[in-house]
Design brief:
The chain has two domains: 236 residues, Up-down Bundle (Growth Hormone, Chain: A); 178 residues, Growth Hormone, Chain: A (Up-down Bundle). 79% of the residues lie in helices and 0% in strands. It has 18 helices and no strands. The longest helix has 33 residues.
Length: 426
């Protein structure tokens, strides 16, 4: 059931939905990947090793909270009807956490403070995606679910990188940081968290103004009770949703591979190919650019051939280029293979979202996207764990990275027998 207005308001509603991806992608890009994570491990924690371990534990704790709350809150939202109030609450939580991170001083005593707000921000970001994603099949024009998902994912990559560029030019890589900030207390680095807070608030606003929502459903307490009962029944009768369960299992495995690729790609580049920190940062930016280009470019394929074929093509490309990277030597071949590999990352993610959007029953979309979030977090530890074991067992980074190919291949094999949910969002 679509609640999108007709006429001239539809493009504005769809653009506003995509713009939210542009808005909130600043959080993982600036906070949890490039800037604040580095600041925490190098300037706040006792040592880089201790900081990395503490950061990993915090992310694991956040993943546990997301895995537990996502499906339940999604089921409750389905009964209550409206998604945007939940999305607003999660967005406010994420923004508030970014503001809290500004107060993190480069002192050992601020470790707990920083990790607390990182966990809160991560939970707000990830749970918010449950409700954001569940709007997709309701607002997309018939036959355009894949395109809209790809465009949104592409805008997300672009927004994160533009915000990162602003942070680097305005606060980090400059002798005269904006607003006269003092480097002695790490104010320029800390100010990037305020930049993210403003960025998310500003660019998320159009969605709440112009993207339509479902009509109000059951009262809050009734939705709470009935939503939890519905979730329990869904899990108990999972065989009635066998297609969904198989897809989530396949996604769980190949997303573990993708997440591990992003987490350890820079480490592999530095350790095996001798790339400097500046080169690693450039690599991270470049692969995000190609991933965004891939998400947008493959979006039409999703609508014409279906999300299943798009996912299979994306996983096949990742396996081929990833396997070649394991055999490559020298920086030239690393760049020559890594950049086209990035083209297949975005489509794998965007088509997974559209697959779930088409597969979910209309009255269970938020609940299903809650399970979708669960599938992305429940086994997030497996990829890094197998990589570490293989690296130690064979004393080789290449051997460790080869485990990523295994995860992608297993996910691809599990996708093969699934029925394509179709090319029309209905």
């Amino acid at each position: 059931m679509s609640t999108v207005e007709s006429g001239g308001e539809r493009p504005r509603a769809l653009f506003s939905w995509c713009l939210f991806d542009w808005a909130n992608s600043a959080f993982p890009t600036v906070i949890t990947t490039f800037v604040f994570a580095t600041y925490f491990t190098t300037a706040v924690a006792e040592s880089t090793i201790a900081g990395t371990a503490a950061w990993g534990h915090a992310q694991s704790f956040a993943a546990l909270i997301i895995a537990l709350l996502g499906p339940a809150l999604g089921a409750i939202a389905d009964r209550g009807g409206r998604r945007k109030p939940w999305l607003l609450a999660c967005t406010v939580l994420c923004v508030a956490a970014c503001i809290g991170l500004w107060f993190t001083q480069p002192e050992r005593g601020d470790v707990i403070w920083a990790l607390t707000f990182v966990v809160l921000g991560t939970v707000g970001f990830e749970i918010g995606m449950v409700f954001y994603n569940s709007l997709l099949p309701e607002i997309a024009p018939p036959g355009r679910v894949g395109r809209l998902s790809g465009w949104g994912w592409g805008m997300g990559y672009a927004g994160g990188l533009v915000c990162l560029t602003v942070a680097l030019l305005g606060f980090i890589q400059t002798d005269a940081p904006w607003f006269g900030l003092v480097a002695g207390t790490a104010e320029p680095v800390r100010a990037t968290t305020l930049l993210v807070a403003v960025w998310v608030s500003l660019f998320a606003l159009p969605l709440f103004l112009w993207t339509p929502d479902q009509p109000k459903g059951e009262p809050t307490m009734e939705a709470l009770r009935n939503g939890l009962v519905t979730l329990i029944n869904t899990l108990y009768n999972i065989r009635q949703h066998a297609q969904t369960a198989r897809f989530l299992l396949a996604r769980m495995i190949y997303i573990d591979g993708l997440n591990t690729l992003f987490a350890f790609g820079g480490i592999y580049a530095a350790g095996t190919f001798g790339m400097s920190l500046e080169e690693v940062i450039m690599f991270g930016i470049a692969i995000n650019v190609t991933a965004g280009i891939g998400a947008v470019s493959f979006a039409w394929l999703d609508d014409t051939m279906g999300p299943k074929r798009t996912i299979l093509i994306a996983l096949g490309g990742l396996i081929c280029f990833g396997g070649a990277l394991l055999l490559a030597s020298g920086k030239f071949w690393f760049w020559a293979l890594a950049l086209p590999l990035g083209l297949f990352v975005g489509p794998a993610q965007a088509a997974s979202r559209s697959f779930m959007a088409r597969l979910a029953p209309p009255d269970m979309r938020a609940e299903m996207f809650g399970l979708f979030a669960f599938s992305g977090k429940a086994t997030a530890f497996l990829g890094p764990l197998f990589l570490a074991w293989a690296t130690l067992a064979f004393d080789s980074q290449r051997a460790g990275m080869a485990t990523i190919i295994v995860f992608l291949a297993v996910g691809l094999i599990l996708m093969l027998p699934l029925r394509d949910p179709g090319r029309d969002s209905g």
